[in-house]
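Shipment paperwork, digital attachment
Item: protein structure file
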Amino acid sequence: MDTVNIMIVGVGGQGSLLASKLLGRLLVDEGYDVKVSEVHGMSQRGGSVVTYVRFGDRVYSPLIEEGEADFILSFEKLEAARWAPCLKKGGRIIVNTQEIDPMPVITGAAEYPSGILEELKNKGVLIDAVDALSIAREAGSAKAVNIVLLARFAKYFSIPVESWETAIANTVAPKFAELNRKAFELGYNA
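Attachment content:
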């Protein structure tokens, strides 16, 4: 099997690191060689966070170069635009339609750009946009956006839903297991 390259991008505090941990666990349990690398940046201050997840028969490095990502899971629209150059031709961005203002917007030095997803589509990028925040809230917590995005991403693989549910149960704290199971189900069926 060829190596599959996935980037998980977002803003600090959105749960992208848990998503990468869960995805890595799932893929190892499915028998793949997996490499995960996390770049935190200013994550504790709402800055950009990116995680690389690579899997296949044999993976030698955790890093993904520009133009190599098969998938980008973006927790926020501006992050999708920021990391789009890493996507390979024919790759796909699964993006939460949420907008989180970066510091220049918060301070009034800039405006949040409009038409981000349309601009990416016009450049030929395959976009799968989902209002993951609303679905997460429906499941019971806005913090479940990460699980909703993973559920949407799961549709692109032949890994059984039960395997995803097992990985969730084995990764999240038991008191949050039911919330995350529901978020996965709602996200998968959205």
